[in-house]
Amino acid sequence: MRMWLRTLMLLFVATVGAAHTALAQTTGALQGTAYDEDGLEIPGVTITLSSPALIGGAQEVVTNDLGYFKFLELMPGVYEITAVHPTFAPVTVTGIQVNINRTTTQNIEMFSGGGEEITVVSTVAIDTESAAVGQVLTKEFLDRVPTGRSYQDAVGLATGVQGGGNPNISGSASNENSFTLDGATMTDPVTGTFSANFNYDAIQQIEVGTAGYDPEFGGTIGGRINVVTRTGSNNLEFSVAGYYMDSRLSGRKDTRWAADGLQLGRSDFDSFFNMVQASVTAGGPIIRDKVWFFGAYQYNRSSQALLGSAQNRIFDGHQPLAKITIQPSDGHRVHLFYQADPTTIYNTQFPSGNGTVFDEAQASQLQASTIAQARWQWFINESINLDTRLQYQGQQFQVGQVPCTHNMDQGRNPCSPFEQENTSDYYAGGRVGSGGAANDVNAISFSFADRTRIQASTKLTLDGIMDKAGGQHSIKVGVKVDQIGSRSMFGINGKSYQLDINRAQTSAGSVFNYFAYEFSNPVDVSSVGLMWAAYAGDKYKPVNNITLAYGLRFEQSIFRDDTGEVSTSLWGVAPGASIVWDPWNDQKTKFVVGWDRSNDAGRLSFVNYTQNAALGQKTYSGSYTYDYGHLPGAPNPTYGGGVVLDGNSYQFGQPTENRDSAWSNLRMPYADSLYLTAERQVIPDLVAGVNALAKLSRYIYEPDEVNYIYNSDGSSVIGSRQGTSQFGYSRLRTPELARRNYYRIDTFLRKVNSRRWGGEVSYSYSFQNGTNSFAEEGIFLNGPQLQYAYGQLPNTSNHMVKGFGYWDVPIDPNTLRLGASLQYYSGQPLDRRYASNTDFNFSNYGLRIRDRGIYTRTNPYWEFGLSATQFVDLRRGRLAIQLQVFNLTNNRAPSFPNAFDLNRNNRKTFLTRQQPLSILAGVQYVY
User: Fold this and answer.
1) pLDDT surpasses 70 at 137
2) Could you give the 3-state DSSP secondary structure of residue 61?
3) What is the dihedral of CA 226, 227, 232, 235, to 10 degrees?
4) Residues with Cβ < 8 Å from 668, sequence gap 6 or more?
5) Residues with Cβ < 8 Å from 913, sequence gap 6 or more?
């Protein structure tokens, strides 16, 4: 009774704390059972755990009556255990890998009669307790295979992941993922995308979750990317490195033209990418076994040629990171963490209409993300601990003119003779070119944004609770609160700009000014959100070889617009359950069946639907007849004919009242995931397995256009409800039709790191259909369009192959390390859309006039990479000389298809291609 009273008091302490929407696990656990040579459990064995990652010195436990032991809250890394018993020979097991959010099971076989110590190397290949679907990428893996020195590229090697920095994971959209860094959320509170870059050499492990989430993880229906960085140790460690990457080492593709003169693919002779990167890391003890520090700094400078532009996009970023780990006593541990990435990006303006952007019309972006976190772990006893965190996340953006310079080596906007260095012109309006005309005079617009997130969390863990019916429980309960805010300002330079049109694209002399836009003063808006969640979960082991996991999560989000009114208020419940079975209780086989529900708690971009502030505008002067041409498959010959645009028909002003809205029946979207897994260790360090996943997403966020009136088949706009055809008033909805159905089956072989080599290869077949490939996609679920809305989604590659491998060539002491990686995706489906066109309005409003389905596919994508690292032992420290080659076959698959050219001309055209063969070379010194 006293035990449960104490537990209830601790639960109260936990629930009055608070947390954020995606509290990420940053530690793992290690457990096992001591057996004798006859397979009988041995109680009373003293188990000593040691590792450079273990602050506070070696830990010691004694096996219980069933020979069982467990260590909790271990930082990810490699550990060693020693087992000692008076009547058995001592045993030491080395090379035990502990991963984040995983429990490693390392059983120990002991031999009676005493004798000399026995040393064995761990070959644990299967986690026979975890139902999680996904992968953990360790530092050892990241050091051995070509990954491009970014966590975004590394994540792309995981099964079920497709895409780059904001990937599609298990059929989810690129703005539906969760990103965490050392347990701190780094998901952008407005867009739902990643918001921070950091030193690649500081990474300890990356967890990529695709399904099978514990109830403490929520707030998103996408994937989970959880990064944990290195900590200090009792040993002073230091590294310094420099890297250079270049893509100008292979042939280029020239422009492709059809027989009738249509440009099917652009030339990339003027495109390239190169990067210079410098990295420093340092870690060690401030007070041995009590206070450790780790710090890192990375400088990135990259240059990328913009297609059709005379300027290169220049990325210049600084990424400092610092953390301190303090363990004043066995019962308390404190973590302090700080990360920032101030960055300047020059020449961000892409050319429009195949034109050119001159120096003076370019734009620059200054951005910075800051994350600070304090964490306190209270180890009440061997089985109970309380984990409390407080986090601040801040983001700042400033987009405007490229500051002028008198230094021509900078390759930026040149200053006039009397202009001060680094001057930005906010008073002169720009000129925008279309149809081949250039952008000049000045950049068009400027914007400023500040985003903040304040989070707090408390989680209580009760492990090893014995059940009267047999077995034991591991219970976690917690609450999470997340206060987010955004303030942004947007305006037009000089409050006006001119539109120039080149009527004959091949003739520069055909440029003329069509009309001018005039704008009101800049808008300045703010919005806030409150997100909170409470959860409880239990992992119950009724017997040694079965793990039952079940839990429940409740979450709510409330967003307020610039007037302080509630824009959206949503809530959802997310239950889940799974069974993990090791049928022979030998850690060589695992069967998993599980189901979980996850909710999309939303993001501050929703507030845009109900903001009252808007940029007033009108057009004046000019007249032009634009022959859009007949669209193939149009219902009548007049669809898409020439229309007259002039100042009279285009004069309008932004309404003072806001006609956008949020649906009164808005609900929180959810995804149900059903997953099955079977794994078998076929030889001591080789695992074969199969995963099957069905993920059904429902009530996805969807804008609904409420102003336009369509014809009977939904193929064209024929009127407007508000009397102003230029405005597509949006209403945020979550209709029942907004859904995705995703199915995938994976087969894989995984060789754990042993005998100097390791790797994995997987093949996946997936299929997805539905209405929304992107959250807030819009335009397809308007009333007359419903009949065309459902079909195979364009972000699905039916066939996917992932692979990586590495080999430490045995030529010690100067070891040569070889690595390889492979990614292959079959072509993605493309279907047809048509642009709405009426007698009074021209718009690229994407409508359909036939069922959504596969009209054609993009080309297959593949990339094969190799890496080689030569180590040279020095008198003090070690030198590593590294070479990585990406896209070795120089595959140049077209990307970014132009959907409207597909519709107009009945063929595929593409705007960009896959990056060409690239080489990264670097040198690192490690002490």
Assistant:
1) yes
2) strand
3) 110
4) 555, 557, 570, 571, 572, 599, 600, 601, 602, 699, 734
5) 253, 265, 268, 892, 893, 894, 895
Give the Cα separation of 732 and 667 in Å (integer): 11
Question: Band of the pLDDT at 563, cuts 50, 70, 90?
Answer: confident
pLDDT at 800: 95
509 contacts: CB under 8 Å, gap ≥ 6: none
* DSSP3 helix / strand / coil % (the chain, rounded to 5): 5, 55, 40
Q: How far is CA 740 from CA 420, 694, 774, 775, 854, in A?
A: 55, 11, 10, 11, 16
The residue type of 621 is S
**How many Å apart are CA 72 and CA 30, to the nearest integer?**
7
Residues 6+ apart with CB under 8 A from 711: 718, 784
Q: What is the residue-averaged pLDDT of the chain?
A: 84
Beta bridge partners of 73: none
CA distances 581 to 101, 136, 546, Å, are 19, 21, 5
CA 494 to centroid of chain Cα atoms: 37
At 616 the pLDDT is 77
pLDDT in tens, 852-904: 777 788 889 999 999 999 999 898 899 999 999 999 999 888 877 776 667 66
**Gyration radius (Cα) of the chain, Å:** 30
Task: Name the least confident of 188-192, 649-653, 679-683.
Answer: 649-653
Measured CA to CA, the distance from residue 678 to residue 205 in angstroms comes to: 24
Please determine, for residue 842, whether its predicted confidence score (pLDDT) is greater than 70. Answer: no
Q: Are strands 523-543 and 511-519 parallel, antiparallel or unpaired?
A: unpaired
Cα pseudo-dihedral 852, 857, 858, 862, rounded to 10: 120
**Residue 629 burial (CB < 10 Å; 0-12/13-18/19+)?**
exposed
Rounded-to-integer distance, Cα 118 and Cα 81, Å: 12
State the burial class of residue 296 (Cβ atoms within 10 Å of its Cβ: 0-12, 13-18, 19+).
buried
Report DSSP state, residue 58: -
State residue 767 phi and psi, 5-degree precision.
-145, 140
pLDDT at residue number 349: 79
pLDDT tens string 700-758: 998 888 888 888 777 777 778 877 666 777 889 998 889 999 999 999 999 988 778 89
Q: Count Cβ atoms within 10 A of the Cβ of residue 544 and give its class: 0-12 exposed, 13-18 middle, 19 or more buried.
A: middle
Cα dihedral sign, 646-651-654-655: negative
Q: How many CB atoms lie within 10 A of CB 472?
A: 18
* 530 touches 483 (CB < 8 A): yes
Residue 476 has pLDDT above 90, yes or no: yes
- The residue behind tokens 């955004």 is 486
What phi, psi does 59 have (nearest 5°)? -105, 150
Give the pLDDT band of residue 479 (cuts 50, 70, 90): very high
Residue showing tokens 């995983």: 102
d(CA 204, CA 78): 11
SS3 category, 277: strand
The confidence score (pLDDT) of residue 367 equals 94
Instruction: Provide the whole-model pTM.
Output: 0.89
Query: Residue 599 forms beta bridges with which residues?
Result: 670
Residue 922 DSSP one-character state: E
pLDDT at 724: 67
How many percent of the chain have pLDDT more than 70?
Answer: 87
Strand partners, 162: 168
CA distance 619 to 644: 15
Indicate left, alpha or beta for 113 from its phi (over 0: left) and psi (-120 to 50: alpha). Answer: left
- Separation of alpha carbons 682 and 589, rounded Å: 9
**Kind and range of the H or E run holding 282:** strand 273-287
What is the predicted pLDDT for the residue at 620? 59
Q: N- to C-terminal Cα distance for the chain?
A: 55
What does the alpha-carbon distance between residue 458 and residue 16 come to, in Å, rounded to a whole number? 8
